[in-house]
Amino acid sequence: MSSVVGRGSAFVLILPLRPAQMASISEGANAESETVLVAEGSKLLVVDDDASIRWLTMRQLELLGVSAEAAENGEMARKMLRAGRFDMVLTDCHMPRMDGIALTLAIRAESDPRLRGLPVVA
Question: How much is the pTM?
Fold first, then answer.
């Protein structure tokens, strides 16, 4: 991480991904997992209030061959999660309405076990 007052911050996240041979990442993933594999056919939900970050993340996932949809806040993400089928959530932590931390807590409190166990990267 680097940060300059008045200019912003830059964060680098390195994910050691390799081809997966499984049907879905939603089975067996947990908070103690060191590596989460994104299987072919997986669908991710990208949650960020910044349109340019959403676009960039979606483009990077597209280049990697990963299917994804985007939401601009946690409230919208919760509606999309309940209505659709996703294998992972990538979320910004600081957003208006419902931030990534509140979204993660809401996902963990869901009555649907499919949602409760969903991997979240925040």
Answer: 0.69
